[in-house]
Automatic annotation (TrEMBL):
Keyword Cell inner membrane annotated: no
InterPro entries noted in UniProt: DUF4386 (IPR025495)
Pfam families, per database record: DUF4386 (PF14329)
Keyword Transmembrane among UniProt keywords: yes
Key words of the record: Membrane, Transmembrane, Transmembrane helix
Source organism (scientific name): Microlunatus panaciterrae
Residues that span the membrane, as ranges: 55-81, 88-115, 135-157, 169-189, 201-222
Name this polypeptide is given: DUF4386 domain-containing protein
Highest taxon of source: Bacteria
């Protein structure tokens, strides 16, 4: 069993979580810029594969890296907030983990689409139109899986927002924003599977998500939790059974 002295201080944990979260956000933006991985349409992704295959490959690597950073951010938040509500902190970590796993699995068909786009002559028995059709199918499978992952990425925000709200050492408005972000991602999930052509439904939610998640990352990274106070210490003792 690790000693008390080996535990990371709350302010350091907060900055670690903020750094991982901000890294996830920035790498996601970069992956989208390089290969339209994330928010790009099926046609956008296919054009990225054809026009600049090396750039798309780099974007795909960064997209996997962003998922890794997101998981580390969730773990850091779990360690930081489990002293507030251990069961709910574990719940948001598990929901995030499933979402990250589903997101990574959804990107595997992109590898098949990338190989088809880079070397269509590897399938001599198929016409160019058939190869293009298969590539589009693989990208569509990716897009559907990416949307499906939003079910877990939306629901992890509800327990996270609640625990942030109740923490006492993070601003309550961040907890409220995270809950609203959960609603926005849930709308994205439903729109993507039930109304795939109605993209405008998700636009207001994207603004909410940006404010909530960038706000949380910056607050943790810059502000930390220096004012956790004695109440946090007493919660920590009860959580560890001390």
């Amino acid at each position: 069993m690790s000693s008390r002295s080996e535990r990371i201080a709350p302010d350091k944990l907060a900055r670690l979580a903020g750094g991982f979260y901000l890294g996830f956000i920035l790498s996601s933006v970069l992956a989208d810029a390089l290969g339209h991985i994330g928010m790009g349409s099926v046609d956008d992704v296919y054009r990225a594969i054809l026009v600049n295959n090396p750039s798309f490959r780099l974007g795909l690597v960064i997209a996997f890296g962003s998922a890794w950073l997101f998981l580390l951010a969730a773990w850091s938040l779990y360690v930081l907030l489990r002293t507030v509500a251990d069961s709910l902190a574990l719940l948001f970590l598990l929901l995030n983990t499933v979402g990250v796993a589903l997101q990574c699995a959804s990107m595997l068909p992109l590898i098949a689409a990338m190989l088809l786009g880079a070397s269509p002559d590897n399938l001599p028995g198929y016409s160019g139109e058939q190869v293009e059709g298969m590539a589009h199918l693989f990208i569509t499978v990716y897009k559907t899986g990416f949307v499906a992952a939003q079910l877990f990425f939306s629901t992890w925000l509800f327990p996270l927002g609640y625990v942030v709200y109740k923490s006492g050492f993070l601003p309550r408005f961040l907890g409220v924003l995270l809950a609203l972000d959960g609603v926005a991602d849930l709308i994205w999930f439903l729109q993507g599977l039930l109304l795939p052509d109605q993209h405008a439904i998700t636009y207001p939610g994207l603004a909410v998500s940006f404010v909530a998640e960038v706000g949380l990352a910056l607050w943790l990274l810059i502000g930390g939790v220096k004012h956790a106070g004695a109440s946090t210490a007493s919660k920590s003792k009860r959580s560890y059974g001390e």
